[in-house]
Write a structure and sequence with these properties.
Largest sheet: 6 strands, antiparallel
Structural class: alpha+beta
Order of helices and strands: HHHHHEHHEEEEEHEE
Strand content: 15-25%
Number of domains: 2
Shape: globular
Strand order of the largest sheet: 1-2-3-6-7-8
Number of strands: 8
C-alpha cells in the first residue's frame, strides 16, 4: 500500500494556497518571474524527490528494477490519489506560469508536462522497492490527471470540472491500525474507507445562456469504498474467541452538492487565498449513496 500519493494531498492543498492567492496573472511576459518559477519548480521538485527517497524509500528493502501490477488493489482508491495529485500539480504549475505572463495554452502544456514528469519519477523509486514496483496503472492515472487539468485550461482557460477530496472516520482503522492508521492524521492518509474523491462541476454554466443558478453552485459525483481492510479486495475475517466478524468490501457512489469557491467573486486577497485552498476539498452536504444495489440518503456526508 503506497502512501506517498496521499501524503501529497496535503502538499497540493498547501501549495495551492501559496500558489494562487497572492498573485494576479500578468498581461505580458515577465522573464524574471519565468526564471524564478522555473528554478523554484525544478528545485522543489528535485528536493522533494530526494527527501522522500532518503526519508521514506530507504527504510524498505531494495531489489532490481521490476514491474508491479497493483491495478486491482484497494478498489482503485490509490489510483484516484494519483489522478487527484497529478491534476492539482498540473493546475498549480500552470497558474504559476500564467502569473509570469506565459499564455494560458502554453502554461497549461508546461503544467501538464511538469506534473507527469514529477509523478513518474516516483515510479522509478518504486521500481527498486521489494514491496512495490514500477506500476503502469499509476502512470496511466498520472497522465490522465494531468491531462484533465491541461485540456480544460488549454481549450477553456478555466477549470469547469474540479477534483476534490473528503474524509470521515470509517471506524475500521481500529481493526488494522498498522495499515489504516492509528490516529486521525494517519487515518486521513491511510484509511481508504473514509476517503471520497469527487468530480465537482456546474453543468448549467457551460453555455453562454444565463443560468438561474449562481456560478459557484456545483454538483458533485463521488466514489469511495467501504469494509476493505486488505489491499486485494478479499473479505477480512476477525476472530474473537468463538465469534467471527466478516468484512466484505464494496464500492460506494455518491451524488451531492458542492461550492466552487473560486467562482465566488471578492476583492479581498485574504479570501482569495482561503478560497483557493478550500477548493481542494469537498464541502459537507447531504448526499445520495448507491452501493450494494441500494440507494441511501446521507443527511450530512463528508
Amino acid at each position: 500500500m503506497k502512501r506517498w500519493p496521499l501524503l501529497l494531498i496535503l502538499l497540493v492543498c498547501s501549495r495551492s494556497i501559496l500558489g494562487q492567492g497572492f498573485m494576479y496573472r500578468a498581461d505580458s511576459l515577465h522573464k524574471n518571474r519565468v526564471i524564478g518559477v522555473s528554478a523554484s519548480s525544478v528545485g522543489l521538485g528535485v528536493g522533494s524527490i530526494l527527501a522522500l527517497k532518503y526519508v521514506w524509500y530507504d527504510d524498505f528493502d531494495k531489489s532490481p528494477f521490476h514491474f508491479f501490477d497493483d491495478s486491482h488493489e484497494w478498489g482503485q482508491m490509490d489510483k484516484l490519489g494519483h489522478f487527484y495529485t497529478s491534476f492539482h500539480f498540473s493546475t498549480l504549475i500552470s497558474d504559476f506560469y500564467q502569473w509570469s505572463g506565459v499564455k494560458p495554452r502554453k502554461a497549461a502544456l508546461i503544467g501538464g508536462a511538469y506534473s507527469i514528469a514529477y509523478m513518474t519519477s516516483f515510479e522509478f523509486l518504486d521500481a527498486y522497492n521489494t514491496e512495490w514496483g514500477f506500476s503502469w496503472s499509476d502512470i496511466s492515472f498520472n497522465v490522465a490527471g494531468a491531462a484533465s487539468s491541461t485540456i480544460q485550461t488549454y481549450f477553456w482557460n478555466e477549470r469547469r470540472v474540479n477534483l476534490k477530496f473528503s474524509f470521515h472516520e470509517s471506524g475500521l482503522a481500529q481493526y488494522r491500525p498498522s495499515v489504516l492508521g492509528n490516529d486521525f492524521p494517519s487515518r486521513t492518509l491511510k484509511d481508504y474507507n473514509g476517503q471520497t474523491y469527487w468530480l465537482s462541476f456546474n453543468p448549467f454554466n457551460w453555455t453562454k445562456n444565463e443560468s438561474f443558478l449562481p456560478e459557484w453552485f456545483n454538483i458533485s459525483l463521488g466514489y469511495s469504498i467501504n469494509n476493505q481492510l486488505i489491499g486485494d479486495g478479499g473479505s477480512y475475517v476477525l476472530t474473537n474467541g468463538s465469534q467471527q466478524t466478516v468484512f466484505t468490501p464494496y464500492r460506494q457512489y455518491f451524488i451531492s452538492l458542492d461550492v466552487d469557491f473560486e467562482k465566488i467573486h471578492t476583492n479581498s486577497r485574504a479570501l482569495q487565498i482561503l478560497f483557493r485552498g478550500l477548493n481542494c476539498l469537498k464541502v459537507p452536504f447531504p448526499a445520495v449513496e448507491y452501493s450494494q444495489g441500494k440507494l441511501a440518503f446521507r443527511p450530512f456526508y463528508f
